[in-house]
Amino acid sequence: MQPDPLFTSLKLGALELKHRIVMAPMTRMRSAQPGNVPHALNAEYYGQRASEGGLLITEATDITPQAQGYRGTPGLYSAEQIAGWRAVTDAVHAKGGFIFSQIWHVGRISHSSLQPDGALPVAPSPVRPSGDHTDASGQPVSFETPRALEEKELAVLVADFVTAARNAREAGFDGVEVHGANGYLLDQFLRNGSNKRTDRYGGSIENRARLLLEVVDAVIAALGAQRVGVRLSPWNGFNDMSDSDGEALWDYVGRELNKRDLAYLHVVEPRADFTTDLPLDANAPDAAAHFKSVFKGPLISAGGYVAETARAAVGDARADAVAFGRPFISNPDLPERVRTGAAMTWHERATFYGGDHRGYTDYASLEDVSQSCGV
Ligand code: PHB
């Protein structure tokens, strides 16, 4: 029998993975308040999902108070947060697993009620996203027109990413993933629907990619390239993103990242819409295929995979590993279920964001089920 392509080892930077099923970063908004501090419940959640030689990527984590866009998202800038994350990484390592911290700044996808001193959210340019958001108390609000960052603030931002990366190392993480996806700050700089700047950070593709690449280079200088991954969501329109020439943009970004010997590049497939459970868009461009042609390091693909499509993607070398989001919420032992072909539990969307242990740590593993059946 052929070996299962998902259960072969993979060198991912400094890590030697034992299988290729990665837990995708997912916002769950359950940090302890005040202070946006990871706590025991979060350690239990990540510990449940850890597996021998498997990689988890955390929910997006605020690098500074200004980076926050939703209530209850955890940070990585205070001593309490570092201590809280230490319990998370310990729980994952105790099971032989690995964990990267996804470090982000939301840019304009925030609200003044979530910002220090009630300031306006910041962005490359004062372009208000369409649609609605939620405020610090979780109520629906309209987006505000963000304040454009001054050029001198961008160096501070790069330094903030580096501090968060160092804090991640102190908290015991195996590495960090720079969040360049899904319409948050670095993605807002990349695309010309949201970046209207006329300085060195706007206009040409080279200029729009400058901030992402400066952040990536600075984080590499702090941690080493083998401990750094990058996530992108090419062609994805989530959070009101658009670009006039995605083909050229993603080609340039892929080629630049390829020069940097990263632990991995992680792409969100545009066919999948994680805000709904609608069928996949068969006409969307294939991001993994596009990046495979320019990026020679390990490539993780995410977006609407099931066991069979993941197996085919890795088996055909279209991706080196596959990240699962929603199935990992409701199946804490997802790799084992994929390996054995066991039935999957469907997720409940109402408990994705915020709340308590319900819909978070109370999804059963196969082991829990067999114990409660007395098997
Ligand atoms: C979300 O909270 O909706 C969210 C957060 C981070 C992402 C994508 C979506 O990368």
What small molecules are bound in this structure?
A: P-hydroxybenzoic acid
DSSP helical segment count: 12
Which fold name corresponds to the CATH topology? TIM Barrel
Biggest beta-sheet profile: 8 strands, parallel
Which structural class is indicated by helix and strand composition?
alpha/beta
Specify the CATH architecture.
Alpha-Beta Barrel
- Structural domain count: 1
CATH class: Alpha Beta
Reading the helices and strands in chain order gives EEEHEHEEEEEHEHHHEHEHEHEHHH
Low-confidence stretches: none
The total beta strand count reads 14
CATH superfamily membership, which one? Aldolase class I
The 3D shape can be described as globular
Description:
The chain is globular. The strands form 4 sheets. An 8-stranded parallel sheet has the order 3-14-13-12-11-10-5-4. A two-stranded antiparallel sheet has the order 1-2. Strands 6-9 form a two-stranded parallel sheet. The protein is built from 12 helices and 14 strands. The model has no long low-confidence stretch (mean pLDDT 97). With 375 residues, the protein is of the alpha/beta class. The two termini are 29 Å apart. The protein has one domain (5-372): Aldolase class I (TIM Barrel, Alpha-Beta Barrel). Helices cover 31% and strands 15% of the residues. Helix 1 packs parallel to helix 2 (79-94). The chain binds P-hydroxybenzoic acid.
